[in-house]
Design brief:
six-stranded mixed β-sheet; four-stranded antiparallel β-sheet; mainly beta
Length: 113
């Protein structure tokens, strides 16, 4: 199992980023996918979840209305569109799947003026 996150970077408050996570080593279309983040000095937290067919989604209250999780089962990839970014969104972002005890290297998102 492997997760490779990309798309992070430095952005000003109010800006946008689109994260990607390429998954391999398991049947992607059969698995719920999640995005998590870990800010400096804080525990890792769940940001968003998407069902196997992409129809059902869940968001943490802190990102609801600003972030959108999607997936492309033909590309074994899950995405996180992040709009109206705030400094509190600064963190390393990871994708994962419940029941699979693997984490990628993450991608750093920094929001600062």
């Amino acid at each position: 199992v492997q997760f490779v996150e990309s798309g992070g970077g430095l952005v000003q408050p109010g800006g946008s980023l689109r994260l990607s996570c390429a998954a391999s080593g398991f049947t992607f279309s059969n698995h719920v996918m999640t995005w998590h983040r870990q800010a400096p000095g804080k525990e890792r937290e769940l940001v968003a979840t998407i069902s196997t067919d992409g129809v059902r989604t869940f968001y943490a209250d802190s990102v609801k209305g600003r972030f959108t999780i999607t997936r492309d089962n033909t590309k074994n990839t899950v995405y996180l569109q992040m709009n109206n970014l705030k400094p509190v969104d600064t963190a390393v972002y990871y994708c994962a799947s419940p029941g699979l005890a693997y984490w990628g290297q993450g991608t750093q998102v920094s929001v600062s003026s």
